[in-house]
Every structure is written in C-alpha cells, then in structure tokens.
C-alpha cells in the first residue's frame, strides 16, 4: 500500500513542476519577443481613422451631412489619442488657416532648404482662386502638389517615408466636383515595397499624414532607389481614376542630417514617355572653395528608337560655356542598343570666374553611327537663364554649394 502512495505523491510533484516550468518558459519567450525588432518589411503608422475602400460605407467620421454627430464630438473630452483627428474638418482635412507644417514639432527639425522650398512651391489661397479663374484646359494641366518627408533611422536601419498631404487636386467626379483620393507608393527599381494610404472621401486637399517604415534597407543603397507616388481617386463602381504621379530619384538626396520635408508637382501619368525625346538624369555639385563644378551623367530613359536599327546607341556630350563661349567639353562612353542607358560618369570642370552667373552647361544626347554623322537625339541646357527644370536645378546648386543635387530633365529637340 505504501508504494502506490509514494508513486502518487511523486507524480503529483512532477506534474506541478512541469506546469510551473512550462509557464516560466512561456513568460520568457513573451518578454524576449516584445524586445525584438519586428521581422516585417515595413510598419505603417496612421494618424486618424482607418478608411479603406472596403470601409467607405462608414460615414460617421467623415460624413459631411452628419452635423449632429459633429456637435457630439466637440462636446466629448479630447484625449491624446484622437487629438489629431479632432483638429480635422468633416472631410478629414486640417484647416487651412493653421498649416500642419508649422504646428507639427517634427517639421521644426527639417532642413531650412526644404522648408523654404515648401514656402515657395506651396499653393496659397490666392493662387487657388487664380486657378479657378483659368480656362478648362488650364485646369486640366494643374494636377496639384504632393507634400511628403524622408528620413533614415540609423539605429533601426530603416527608411521612413511620411506622406503628409496633397493640395489642389483636380475633381474626378463631375457630378459632385470632388474626388476620393488615395496614394500608392512603390520603391523602384526592384518594386519589392508597395504600400498605399487610406481613401479620403470628397476632398481635393487630402491630409493623409501616414508614415511607412521600411526595414532592411542599408543606407548605402538609398542613393540607388527611386520613389514612385501614384495619386488615384477611388471609384466604387469601376476602375479607380489615375490623377497623376510623382517620381523622386533619391540620388543626391542627403538623409544623414535628419528628416527632409519635400514637395513636388504632380504630373500626368506617362508624360515622360509621350514627350518623344526622352529624359536625362543629371547630378551637379558646385564647390565654392575650389571653384569647380562636378557633373555626373547618371541615366537616360525613354530615348526614341532609330529608324534603321530599331534601337539607338546613345552617348552624352557635355559642353561648358562661359559668356556663350565654349571653354571645355567632355563625353561619355557609348551604350549599345538601349533606350534606357546607365552612364554613371563623372566630370569635373574648373570655373574661370567667381560664381556661376555667366556659366551654362549643354548636354547633347547623340546616337553613335560609324557609317555617317552622329544624330542628335535630344538637347538639355542648364544655367541661370534656362527655363523649367534646368533653371530650377541651377538655382539649387548655387544656393547650396558642396551639395550633390540630382534631377530628371526632359530633352528638347536637337
């Protein structure tokens, strides 16, 4: 009789010990898992209410006709969690009288360059009034402006993109004269990271304020990436309408100093393909101490096809002018049979005068042909008197010396 009793006691103690050990192991795993870096590719931080295309039936947060609920909201005590949401109007946007860029503490740390650019390029109420007075053809050309910020977290080795807002979008719904905008973002060229914002109902000035954090992207690879923003308007009954797109090459953008606030004009989709002459990606850096200009011919894309062979053999000829007199010339290597050439060739020019006021650079994209004279595919001029992106690029390198600045430029007829 004693043996079964002893066995039962030892079995009970063994069971209690096993249960305690299992509970301790579970607690240890849970604590270690909470301190571990998340394994997913990106984290999406959304300030406000989630409104995705499948949840557009919910009009409690952004319904323009529900005035009673808006009154009840103002009577409720404000909490820190919904502080940003309650500052928005019934369409989900922040009031224009108090811009977000001035009230947000994060934007106070942004570089003065991009803050000045935003002041220069932002759409004021007066400009919006002037836009409404334009003809219907001019209205279609104005697709609005996208505001966003870029940052790199060196501790977590993460690339952070914050899509803040868009202003002055065109109305895609002719009946209500408004849109239901949202944004898709892709990191090129690998297209591994594809994200999208929520849909904001019935607004032409959507304030998204959504942060996307991408892990596993080394800082050394940031210069090789390109951000592609596609601005769309949600349509419940058919395919979503494409408003426009924004393409941001990260080559030459310095993120080591902190967050950068940027804004870009929204262009028509595939407008760079329909131009006919193609585009050229150029990076410039003016060294005021040594009075030199560094020119990097990076890439060319969407070059027109040759009539004979079907593909061109492009190369770029770079001419430096001082008072309309050519003082130096360089050229890249020839890239065989491609409409999208990658050159990555650097040239350093000595400037014979102080400053860049009397200096200009001409880029000639030519098709190499051994049997006859090389044909000019397209031409690009950068200088203080240049128009469009050429003049803007030149102004930036003059204002910010010792900084490498890269931009895509449309090629003109040769």
Automatic annotation (TrEMBL):
Tree of life domain: Eukaryota
Originating species: Brachypteracias leptosomus (short-legged ground-roller)
For this UniProt entry, the molecular function terms from Gene Ontology, in alphabetical order, are: calcium ion binding; calcium-dependent phospholipid binding; clathrin binding; phosphatidylserine binding; SNARE binding
The name under which this protein is listed is SYT4 protein
Composition bias (Basic and acidic residues) maps to 62-72, 81-90, 114-123
Membrane topology (UniProt): Single-pass membrane protein
PANTHER family registered for this protein in UniProt: SYNAPTOTAGMIN, SYNAPTOTAGMIN-4
Major subcellular location class: membrane
Pfam families membership: C2
Q: Where is the composition biased (Polar residues)?
A: 94-112
């Amino acid at each position: 009789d004693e043996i079964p009793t002893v066995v039962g006691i030892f079995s009970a103690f063994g069971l209690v010990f096993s249960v305690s050990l299992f509970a301790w192991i579970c607690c240890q795993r849970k604590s270690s898992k909470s301190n571990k870096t998340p394994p997913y590719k990106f984290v999406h931080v959304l300030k406000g209410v989630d409104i995705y295309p499948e949840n557009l039936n919910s009009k409690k947060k952004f319904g323009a006709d529900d005035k009673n609920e808006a009154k009840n909201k103002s009577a409720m005590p404000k909490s820190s969690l919904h502080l940003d949401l309650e500052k928005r109007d019934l369409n989900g946007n922040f009031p224009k009288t108090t811009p977000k860029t001035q009230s947000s503490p994060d934007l106070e740390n942004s570089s003065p360059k991009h803050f000045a650019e935003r002041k220069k390029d932002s759409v004021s109420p007066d400009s919006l009034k002037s836009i409404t007075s334009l003809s219907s053809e001019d209205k279609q050309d104005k697709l609005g402006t996208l505001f966003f910020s870029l940052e790199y977290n060196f501790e977590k080795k993460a690339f952070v993109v914050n899509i803040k807002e868009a202003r002055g979008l065109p109305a895609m719904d002719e009946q209500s004269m408004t849109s239901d905008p949202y944004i898709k973002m892709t990191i090129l060229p690998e297209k591994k990271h594809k994200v999208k914002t929520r849909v904001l109902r019935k607004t032409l000035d959507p304030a998204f304020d959504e942060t996307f954090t991408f892990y596993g992207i080394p800082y050394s690879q940031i210069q090789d990436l390109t951000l592609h923003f596609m601005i769309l308007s949600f349509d419940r009954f058919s395919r979503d309408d494409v408003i426009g797109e924004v393409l941001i090459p990260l080559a030459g953008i310095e993120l080591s100093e902190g967050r950068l606030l940027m804004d870009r004009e929204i262009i028509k989709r595939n407008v760079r393909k329909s131009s006919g002459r193609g585009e050229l990606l150029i990076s410039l850096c003016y060294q005021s101490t040594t009075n030199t200009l560094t020119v990097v011919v990076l890439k060319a894309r969407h070059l027109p096809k040759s009539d004979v062979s079907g593909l061109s053999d492009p190369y770029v000829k770079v001419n430096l002018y001082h008072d309309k007199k050519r003082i130096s010339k360089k050229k890249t290597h020839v890239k065989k049979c491609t409409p999208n050439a990658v050159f990555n060739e650097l040239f350093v020019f000595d400037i014979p005068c102080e400053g860049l006021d009397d200096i200009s650079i001409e880029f000639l994209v030519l098709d190499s042909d051994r049997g006859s004279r090389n044909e000019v595919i397209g031409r690009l001029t950068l200088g203080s008197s240049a128009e469009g992106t050429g003049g803007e690029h030149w102004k930036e390198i003059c204002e910010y010396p010792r900084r490498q600045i890269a931009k895509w430029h449309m090629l003109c007829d040769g």
